[in-house]
Amino acid sequence: MEQQYLLAAIEAALQAGEVILSIYDDPASDFQVEQKADHSPLTIADRKAHETICRCLCGTPFPLLSEEGKHLPYAGRRQWETLWIVDPLDGTKEFIKRNGEFTVNIALVHRSVPVMGVIYLPVRHELYFSSEAAGAYKVPSISWREGKPWTWDELVGQAVCLPLVQERDSFVIVASRSHLTPETEAYIAAMRRRHGRVELVSKGSSLKICQVAEGSADVYPRFAPTMEWDTAAGHAIARAAGCEVWRTDFSAPLAYNKEDLLNPWFIVARRDDLSRVAGVDL
């Protein structure tokens, strides 16, 4: 049953990616950029991707919490033991800038814990997916096939298991391209004092969590606001790859379907590597 839901989420992400690309790649396309109440941008691609994912997942028994959907009051949501948490187009700013660093994020959350995750990069046709039973995987190149959903054997046959073996001689920090705050800069400075040779990599959207999950980065510190739909899918993939998305004091991982959907600040790192990334007094 778990595999069935994961395949449904992958199909939804691939279809949404196709819709997004049809707008992104059209030179005559009008993104129809609007400003939401929090001053973040919203485009026609966000809306159409949301509609596509809702349509693909409506046959599952779980309610859906999407950035672009209606958000029920917590009195109703708190009854949801299992739910989908979705960001139809994570990295709308990157989409508008046309730098390709945006993703489709779909997570299944059970009792506040992300247990299944799908992240698709439409421009690069890269797919990350995970479940607690199957582990975490990356498919380097894949696209939606109309009328012929991908089977589990086909997906795993093309995929590589995460984390990947990485050899490097520097400590790699991945950080937000759009939200490099003073606290983040202080953390980076502290890591430079601790590790000496530090490489800073800037990425957009949920790619930052994926970098740690696949082993191409050591840590992703986030000292800036994010919402649950920004992190849930990446968190599931990170967990399945031996990593965790911790609150900055490392007291607990992030939790989901909270009354307040705003995340606390967090740090993404491998569970067996905390001594190298913790203990920084900001």
Question: Topology of this structure?
Answer:
Blueprint: H1 2-24, E1 34-35, E2 41-42, H2 44-57, E3 64-66, H3 74-77, E4 82-90, H4 92-97, E5 103-110, E6 113-121, E7 126-131, E8 135-139, H5 152-158, E9 160-161, E10 171-176, H6 182-195, E11 198-203, H7 207-214, E12 219-222, H8 228-240, E13 243-247, E14 266-270, H9 274-277
Parallel strand pairs: 3-4, 10-11
Antiparallel strand pairs: 1-2, 4-5, 5-6, 6-7, 7-8, 8-9, 12-14, 13-14
Helix pairs in contact: 1-2, 7-8
How would you describe this structure to a colleague?
Helix content is 33%, strand content 26%. The chain contains 9 helices and 14 strands. The strands form 4 sheets. The chain has a 7-stranded mixed β-sheet with strand order 3-4-5-6-7-8-9, with helices on both faces. A 3-stranded antiparallel β-sheet has the order 12-14-13, covered by helices on one side. Strands 1-2 form a two-stranded antiparallel sheet. The protein is of the alpha+beta class. The protein is globular, with a radius of gyration of 18 Å. The termini are far apart. Helix 1 packs antiparallel against helix 2 (44-57) and helix 7 (207-214) packs parallel to helix 8 (228-240). It folds into 2 domains: 2-161, Fructose-1,6-Bisphosphatase, Chain A, domain 1; 171-277, D-Maltodextrin-Binding Protein, domain 2.
